Structures are given as C-alpha cells and as structure tokens.
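User: Before I run my own analysis I want an independent prediction to cross-check against. Here's the chain; please return only the structure tokens and, at the end, one sentence I can use as a sanity check.
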Amino acid sequence: MDIEVRDEFAPQRPSVLQLALPDETSLRAAYIPLFRHGGIFVPTLREYRLGDEVYVLITLPGDEQRYPVLGSVAWVTPARALGGRAQGVGVHFPGDEKSAQLRRRIEELLSAPSAAERSTQTI
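Assistant: Structure tokens:
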C-alpha cells in the first residue's frame, strides 16, 4: 500500500492562466484599478485561495504580444456567486517595472475614446 505524503507548507509552483481580452469592453470589465499596483480578473473554474501565486499571460485588445505577470490572488469569486458573476480570481500585479508598464498600457487603452465616442468625418 502506497501512502502519499504532502507537505502543505512546501512552496507550490504557480499555476499558469491565460487571458485574451478581445476588446475594450472586456478589458474594462477585467481591469482592477483599485489594487495598489493594478490587477486583472481572470475567469477560471480552478479553485484558488487568497495569496496563491499565479502566472498570468495577458493579451490586450489589438495587441499580439502576451504580457506575463506573476501576481497573487487578491480575491476569489466562487462558483454560483450571487448576481451571476463569473467564477474566477482577481490577480494583484506585483510592484515591478514590467507590471507598471503593463498597467500604464492598460490605462492608456482605457483612456482612449471608444469607437462610439470618436468623432468621424461622416454622419
């Protein structure tokens, strides 16, 4: 009989999540400006706990580049949450320069007038 022994306090490898945001609306819905260094909501069926480290690969609207972020879970939306909210995690960006650049890029995209607000040369 084999017995599996696990040390619950041993450091775990961060899991990898991918998030492709196809448009400004989805970016606006996912971005979390209230976190000190910014953050992003990632829908996932996997269960996480507060403080878990996760590696997120983020693709922004109109950008082929994937931005890697090693962040920490700052909140969890469980399955069957009230209000029909999607199950997932809010990932807090770290205070490093790469994450600061990503945050500036996100805020730049969100500060630009949306297609509906842009003036046109037509009716």
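Sanity check: The chain has two helices and five strands.
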